[in-house]
Amino acid sequence: MHLILVLKAAFMGVVEGLTEFLPISSTGHLILAGSLIDWTGDGAKAFEIIIQAGAILAVCWEFRGRIAKVMVGLGNDPAARRFVFNLAIAFVPAAVIGVVFGAAIKAVLFAPVPVALAFVVGGFVILLTERSLAGATRARVQEVEDVTPLDALKIGLAQTFALIPGTSRSGATIIGGMLFGLSRKVATEFSFFLAIPTIFAATFYSLYKERAALAALDSSLLVVGLVTSFLSAFLCVRWLLRYISTHDFRAFAWYRIAFGLVILLTAHFGWVAWAD
Question: pLDDT for 156-173, tens place per residue?
C-alpha cells in the first residue's frame, strides 16, 4: 500500500469528520479536497460514501446512553415513540427527493464552482438568520423531547436543501430548526439525531449503486478513512456542543463566504485547476 494513498485516505477521513456536523458542508469540502489532491473518480466516490459511516458512528457513540434509552423505551414509553416518530417524519422529505432527483443533482452540481457558490449563499443565509433572531425572546422549544411532528416536518423540508452540495445538511437542519422555534441547543441535537437515519440510509443506498467501484477499493484504505473520520467527528461533536452554549454561528458563516470566494477566484483566474 503506497504511503501517499494512505495519507490521502487519512486526509479525506479527517475532512469528513471535521465537517459533517458543522454548518459548512462535508460534501462540499470533500469535493474540493478531492479535487485539490487528485482524489477523484468512481473509487473516490465510493470511499467518501463509506467514511460517512465513521462520522455517524461517532454521534452514535457520543449519544449512546440516550439512544439506548429510546430503544428500550419504544415498547412502553410514549416520549420515546414520539421521538422516533418525529425523526421518521423529518427523514422522509430528503429521502424521497434524493431518490428521485439525486442523480440529476450529482450530474450538474457536484463540481467545485457550484459548491463554492452554495458556500457563499449559505453563509449569507446564516448571517441573516442570526440577525433576525438577535434579541428574540426565549425559543419555544427548549428540549428535544418537546419537538412536535410539525416541527419535525419543517426541519425535514429544510434538510432537502442539503441535497445541493455545499449547502450543509447540519447547517440546513440547525438553522431551519432555529427559524422554526427551536433553541440553538435543541436544533443542534435534533440535527445530530436526524443524521443517524439520514446518513446511514444514504450510505447504504449509495453503496448499492456504487457496489462495483466499492469492490475495487483497497480495504486498508477504507479502514484508515473510517478510523480518521470517526475520531475527528467525535472530537468535533464534543467541541460543537460546548461551542454553541456561548456562541452563535456567525463565525461559520464568514468562513463559508471567505472559503467560497477563494474557490471562485482561484477558478476564475486559473490559479488552481479544480477538477470536476
Answer: 999 999 999 999 999 999
